[in-house]
Specification:
By secondary structure, the chain is an alpha+beta fold. The protein has four helices and seven strands; from the N terminus they run E-H-H-E-E-E-E-H-E-E-H. Strand 6 and strand 7 form a beta hairpin.
Length: 171
Amino acid sequence: MGLPADLLGDGEVEELHLRSHAKALIVPVLLLLLIAVITGFAVAFVPPVTQPWSGWTIAVIALVAVVIWTIVPFLRWWTTTYTFTNRRIITRRGIINKSGHDLPLSRINNVAYERDLIDRIFGCGTLQLTTAADEPVTLEDIPDVERVHVVMTELLFSGSDPIQQPRLKDE
């Protein structure tokens, strides 16, 4: 599901709508498992004399750790989206405070991508968009970055070629 139609201009068509690659969730999932194991051991080794307060204390500490290290990163990942239209690139992010950035395609001079070994294993990469005036816009962990690069190149250069006028021979 992409952007609502009322956020697109007249004649604007959504080409791609995506979020960062799910590899961003590997560490939070591992932390969730680690917190569960540590919590289980902590509850198992609590002396019966200190029950039930020690169990509740451990549960509250574990819940806070889960919220900070797993739920918040998941919500950041879920609420960060990149939408490519035939006119602009729209980035939206934020859990409570929302922020967005629109980059018109007409301002983009160069599109490049970068993939390190880990990115190649997971099938993602970093897309770098260079504009004339600003610092490069970097979109990290874009899934299937090579396909996105091709789509971006087609969007940038599909309607920008000048019409070739036939040359008349000098008579």
